[in-house]
What does this fold into?
Amino acid sequence: MKINKVVFPVGGLGKRFFPITRTIPKEMLGIIDKPLIHYAFEEAVAAGIEEFIFVTRRGKDSIEDYFDYMLTNSEYFHIKTGSVCYVRQSEPLGLGHAVLCAKNLIGNEPFAVVSADDLIVHEKSCIGEMIKHYNGSNMVASINVASAEVSKYGILDVAHETDKFLIAKSVDEKPSPKSAKSTHAIVGRYILSNKIFDVLGNLEPGIGGEIQLTDALLKMIPSCGLTGFKFEGKRFDCGSREGLLAAILHVANQSEALSCIIKNFYKGEI
It folds into this structure.
């Protein structure tokens, strides 16, 4: 099934990167010569998506300025004029609320959500591979995490597993290691039925006082199902300082010139 639209939730505060994110959006933090949001946008373009929706808020003008420039310079992206739009999120009330803000721009069709926090490095577009395998069920990208890390993620309770897919019977947002039903964690790639807006619009705040997308996915399992997609590639949690640094080093190591600098640093020559 063709997926034409993607939502980029970029309205968060980026508190883990204070004080720099007081003035620079987290999504504009650089991986060498490109900001995080550039990589997310590239992945969506490579997937054949044609309409790009940014859910933003005050203090994020540099994201719009960046894409104003990028999209008028054809050496970067080849997309149709008018295919990028922005909607404001008044307050950062959670991922579910950010997705809900895009409701009037989605219409009656399934759509993708890509988080710039999760950088996935692979020759294939992760969201593109999910689109190829989409069958109408809500779909999330999933990885195995250490048991001690489950409280950072939405965790799938798996009824059936194959080489590529996890069929979930439940999902829990940020469970404790003792209560988690598995170590299959959701990371920031989703393909969602447009029916999720009806659920999100009636959700009470969940963990952290936020509207949790995970809670909406849980409510929809009986009617829509939930599939975890075991993607290929290396994922970096760039919403954390450790993950951002690891991503920078990984990308730098792919360049002959920059990898030499890393090697010389560890030799004590820099």
